[in-house]
Amino acid sequence: MTVVTLSRRPLRSIWTKTRRKPGHFAAVMTHAVQDASATEAKAKTVVLSVDAMGGDKGPATVVAGLARFLADTPGAKTILHGPEAELRPLVAKRRIEGHVTIRDARDVVKMTDKPSQVLRSGKDSSMWSTIDAVKQGEADVAVSCGNTGALMAMSMLQLRRAEGVKRPAIACLWPSRNPAGFNVMLDVGADIRAEKEDLLAFAMMGASYARNGLGLPVPRVGLLNVGTEEHKGRAELKEAQDLIIRAAPAGAFDYVGFVEGGDLPSDRVDVIVTDGFTGNIALKTGEGTATLISSLLKEAFNKSILSRFAALLAMTSLMRLSHRIDPRRVNGGVFLGLNKTVIKSHGSADATGVAAALQLAYKLGASGFSERVAARIASAAMLAHDSQTEDADKRARAKEDDPQ
Questions:
Q1: Which of 32, 54, 98, 233 has the largest count of CB atoms under 10 Å?
Q2: Rounded CA gap, 193 and 169, in Å?
Q3: Alpha carbon distance 359, 356 (integer Å)
Q4: Does residue 393 have a cis bond before it (omega within 30 degrees)?
C-alpha cells in the first residue's frame, strides 16, 4: 500500500483542546520540525532486501516491479533473494544488474505452509534470507509477497519486537476523502487481541507511519468503536482512550476520539486504531464491497448499446475513479513494532503493485522510520507503566480507606 506526500495543517480536535497540557502546541511542533529536519538530513543510500519468490505470479513479476521502481528511483540498491539460476536471466533481461545483488536461496515458502513448520525448516528459504539481510545490517527494509503468517513469524524471530511492544501490528492504507487519498489503519491481522497498552502502542506507531509515509506533521488519531459517544464500547477501549489522550503531546498527534466504521474512508481522521480481529474483518469487508461495486458497474455499463455508449462518454471519469481506488497503488502492509521495518506486499500483486510496495519501503527506509517508531514506542511504554502504577496506588488507597 503506497505513499502520497502531503503537507497541510490538520484540524484541531476537541479532545486536545479540552485536555491539552501547557506547552502542548510547542511540543507538537517541535516533534514535527525535528522529524522533518531528520528526513532532509538523512542522505544515505537506501538498500532494500526483496524476496523474489512466494508471490502468486512468480519471480518474473517481482523483477518487473523492481525494474519499474528502479527506473523511478535510480539511487536505490537492492538485494534480491531466490534461486540465482532463475533470477539472473530475469535481472539481465530488465538491465538492472548495476542496482541488484542476487543472494542465492534455493527454498521457497509456500502460501499453504504453516508458520510453525516454516520456522523449523525454512532457514534456506528466500524469505528467511530476505529478513536476515536486514538483521545483519546489509539492508534497511525487507519486502516480500509471500505467506503473511510465515513472514510475521520469521520477522519476530529474527528482528525481535521493539522494546515496549507486546504485540506487533500490521498497518494498511485505506482509501479516503483526505487530500492524501488514504487513511492509515492498524492492526489489520497481526494478532486478534489487543489490550489497552497495545492500542496505545498502535496509536503511537500509526501516527509515526502517517508522519513518515504520508507526510502529515501532526496526524489525527481515532479509536474504532461501535459509536462516538464516550459511554459506548468495551471497558478496555475507554481505558485505552485515556492513555491515548495523555500520550498525544509526546506522540505529536491529535486525538479525535472514538470513530465508527463509517469514518474509515472519511476526512475526519488520519489514523484508525483497532485490534487485529476487528481490523481484518473491516479490511476484508472493504475489499469485498469494492469488488462488488466494480462488478455491478461493469454489468450496468454492458447492459445495452445505450449503456455502452454512456460508458464511452464517461470513460475519462471512470478511469479517474479507477485510478483513485486502484488497490495496486496502496500495496504494502507495514509490520510495526519490530526493531526493523518489514513490508508485506499482496501475494497477487502485479508489477505495478510490487513497484508501489518497494517505493513505500524506500521512503520509510530513507526517513529512518524504524528508529523513530522505537522512540515513540518507548515513550508509550513509559506512559503505560505510569498508568499502571497510578491504578495500583488508587487501589491501595481505596483498600486503606475501606478495609472491609
A1: 54
A2: 11
A3: 5
A4: no
What DSSP element (H or E) covers 335? strand 333-336
Mean pLDDT in order along the chain per 10 residues (404 residues): 40 38 38 42 78 91 95 92 95 94 94 90 94 95 93 93 86 87 89 89 91 88 92 89 90 92 92 94 85 84 87 82 66 87 89 91 87 69 57 58 59
Q: What are phi and psi of 102, to 5 degrees?
A: -90, 130
Residues 6+ apart with CB under 8 A from 220: 10, 11, 13, 253, 254, 255, 256, 268, 269, 270, 271
Cα separation, 250 vs 295, in Å, equals 46
Q: What is the pLDDT of residue 288?
A: 83
- Eight-state DSSP code of residue 107: B
DSSP E strand stretches across 91-215: 100-104, 141-144, 169-175, 182-186
Residue 224: closest CA among 178, 149, 174: 174
Which of these, 233, 252, 236, 277, lies nearest to 372 by C-alpha position? 252
Amino acid in the structure at residue 71 = A
CA angle 269, 175, 347 (to 5 degrees): 130
C-alpha cell at 321: 475513479
- Which residue in 159, 130, 162 sits closest to 145, CA to CA? 130
Among 51, 375, 390, residue whose Cα is nearest residue 208: 375
**Of 316, 287, 360, 300, residue with least CA distance to 141:** 360
DSSP assignment, residue 367?
Answer: T
Distance CA 295, CA 213 (A): 31
Please give the Cα distance from 109 to 118 (Å, whole number).
Answer: 7
- Grid coordinates of 213: 509515509
C-alpha cell at 56: 502468486
Q: Is the entire prediction scored with pTM above 0.70? A: yes
